[in-house]
Amino acid sequence: MFRVYFLLGSIFVILLLLPLFFSHYVLGIFVLIFYYAYLGQSWNILTGYTGDISLGHSLYVGIGAYISVMLSMFFGVSPWIGMFVGGLGASLVGLFVGFLGFRFGLKHVYFVLLTIAFAEIGRLAVLHLKPLGQLMGLFIDFKPSLVNFQFRENIYYYYIGLAFVVFSLIIVRVIEISKLGRYMVAIREDEDAAESLGVNAFKYKMIAIGISAFMTSLAGTFYANYVFYLHPSTVMSMGLSIEIILRPIIGGTGTLFGPVIGSFLISPLAEISRSYFSKAGLEGLHIVIYGALLITATLFFPRGVYSYIKRSFGPFLRDSKSSIT
To answer: How many domains does the chain have?
Structure first.
């Protein structure tokens, strides 16, 4: 256990010191790594631990972004407060989606279709609401300050993004070692068997989707105040939902570090390839690379990269007691 904590502490210290050595552009890549790692971890709470696949998590990103931005623009509410209001709004929507899906026994592809439908409804609704910018999108006034969650340098977003990732790791670890986590895993492995033993599957899946939606929405505020522009095609799109799930799938769903590892593998590749191919006039080719990488990961790492890292390096990190999973 000591070796594991020592390794995690060393990695954390290194990440704290990295901004001292990297350029503005490289820090921007790390911001995206943290952003998608956090989103993947938030999605992982629902799908990784209960087994109910959501392809509509971009809906919660959009809800969090638009609510916090509108509160800031029209009522002067700090985004630090607005993001929690947005989180509550996203959680309520998530609970409604969960109620429709879980109460009526929608599983597998049917629940997936339900999440897609709600995400698409949200996207189309925003496209037709004039206060939200409609087809033109919504431009956010740049007023750099800590209260406004806006900064001139990427280093500030770097540390906030890192804090988001650490926060998500703590939340997921607490869930893992709690009764809630054990029940969620039991539901994922065999829902009928879990219910026969007295586990209320509906209750615990509702808790999972509520937490997942709340946490996902917080990233919406972060994104809005990082790019200063919102459009439903970016924050409420199917493309973003796929981006969210790629990280934990490649890193390892249902694991603590899988989404983070997946983001460190995918996010730099995505940003660098997108920039390179755009300059070469080959926009969209990075999606082909995504597909090839996902196929490769599915064929050679069906349980995610983290399971193989754990298998390879686990003996070196363990002492006489069990380590973090």
So the answer is: 1
> Is residue 191, in this structure, part of any structural domain at all?
yes
What is the per-residue pLDDT for 109? 87
Mean pLDDT score, 6-29: 91
Are 151 and 144 in contact, with CB atoms under 8 Å apart?
Answer: yes
d(CA 266, CA 293): 9
Which residues lie closer than 8 Å to 41 by C-beta, 6 or more apart?
165, 168, 169, 172, 215, 248, 259, 260
φ and ψ at 210, to 5 degrees? -65, -45
The stretch 255-277 carries a mean pLDDT of 87
Q: Which residues contact 247 (CB under 8 A, 6 or more apart)?
A: 36, 37, 39, 40, 259, 262, 263, 266, 267
Closest among 233, 241, 251, 252 to 212, alpha carbons compared? 241
Please check whether residue 272 is in contact with residue 70, taking contact to mean a CB–CB distance below 8 angstroms: no
Q: How far apart are CA 247 and CA 77, in angstroms?
A: 33
Rounded-to-integer distance, Cα 69 and Cα 61, Å: 12
Model pLDDT, residue 158? 97
Report yes or no on 15 lying in a domain. Answer: no
Task: Match 């910018």 to its residue by tokens.
Answer: 133
Question: What pLDDT is attached to residue 206?
Answer: 97
Residue 295 lies inside a defined structural domain of this protein: yes
CATH number of residue 131's parent domain:
1.10.3470
104/195 Cα distance (integer angstroms): 16
Percent of the chain whose pLDDT exceeds 90:
70
Is 308 part of a structural domain of the chain? yes
Please answer whether residues 277 and 286 qualify as being in contact, where contact means their C-beta atoms are separated by less than 8 angstroms.
yes
